[in-house]
Amino acid sequence: MKNLKMKLARMELELSQTELAKRVGVTRQTIGMIEAGDYNPTLKLCVAICRELDKTLDDLFWEEEFK
User: Fold this and answer.
1) What domains, with CATH codes, occur in the chain?
2) How far is CA 26 from CA 34, 44, 47, 50, 51, in A?
3) Non-local CB neighbours of 17 within 8 Å, separated by 6+ positions
């Protein structure tokens, strides 16, 4: 499932995938794959992303239940 919440939070701060990647210590491709839903990040990486984007784990990574 695509992570549009993370992409939106990144764009609100006017950060590129490359800049966010540098800040959290991964490649731009990793950020792109997370946003595309093609990569399941570690908890450590999720926390680092949340810190950089000033969001909580729930804000960015909690999936709403499907009805």
Assistant:
1) 4-61 (1.10.260.40)
2) 11, 12, 13, 14, 15
3) 10, 28, 31, 32, 35
What pLDDT score was predicted for residue 63? 77
Q: Which residues of 39-65 are buried (b: 16+ CB within 10 A; e: fewer)?
A: eebeeebbebbbebbebeeeebbeeee
With contact defined as beta carbons under 8 Å apart, do 5 and 26 qualify? no
Where residue 28 falls among pLDDT bands split at 50, 70, 90?
Answer: very high
Cβ 31 vs Cβ 59: under 8 Å? no
Entry pTM: 0.90
